Amino acid sequence: MSDELKDEIEAINSIYGDGCLVVSQDSHHVYILTPPGEASSLRIEFPTSYPEEPPAVIGTHSAGAQGRKGDAARELSLFRQAVGTVFQPGVVCLFDAIEELNRLLEELAPAEPEHGGDNSKAVEASDTQHYQLEAAELSEPPPWTISEPVIELKSVFVARCARVSSTEEAASYVQHLLASDKKIRSATHNITAWRIKGDKGATFQDCDDDGETAAGGRLLHLMQLMDLWDVMVVVTRWYGGHHLGPRRFALINQAARDAFVRAGFVDENKTSTRKGASK
């Protein structure tokens, strides 16, 4: 197994859930892919030269309850089409292929006969209404300061920070952000952290990985090192199809620090003095 394939398997399972991409019991070159939200599983064979050569989508995989046979055949055909569309020699392609499959399925969805309404759309509309109600409680948009985008291997990181005076205010800012920006709401991760000084010496610190394991804690640690209080930050990541490994933490913190500096929360002279004293 190449390092690229090993990293891709880890990335796919971290994004879509453990078990999304697992090795087949009958061949270590064949993997079972269960695209998120789909009933059918697909058999994917990786040549030893992958990603210089594309993976082969060799068929569907039967394991327990499955959707209708016609659905499985359709998804197999669409995924083969998706791989053919996104593959570039030397570049891993499964994330892009899964996203392309989702796009193709969404295009076909309106043409399918409906029976008694679409519950998933109703749930999505309900979630959007919930966010909008939460956001409506704010009299004006949060005073975000936004970082420059940090881009590496097609992954994009953007940080937003703002002054906050309570945990409730911090939570409402996050709700407003998700409600008001569909692109951010649909991002791969929205990692948050905040540090707040309350009444009578009480302090509040919290973070949320949003699926990017350990990222929230590292973001909070950055704020501790920078001695930031009454501040919150949200770092949004759009996954670019390439596993970045531990380097992603540095990129997340880089975007966050840029937002803090732009907002005037960081005393550069004080930071430089501390660095000099520590030598």
TrEMBL record:
Localisation per UniProt entry: Cytoplasm
GO biological process: GCN2-mediated signaling; regulation of translational initiation
Family annotation (Pfam families): Impact_N, RWD
Record Gene3D superfamilies: Impact, N-terminal domain, Ubiquitin Conjugating Enzyme
Keywords per UniProt: Cytoplasm, Repressor, Stress response, Translation regulation
Residue ranges of domain RWD in the record: 7-108
CDD domains: RWD_ScYIH1-like
Cellular compartments per GO CC: cytoplasm
Family recorded in the similarity comment: Belongs to the IMPACT family.
The name this protein goes by in its record: RWD domain-containing protein
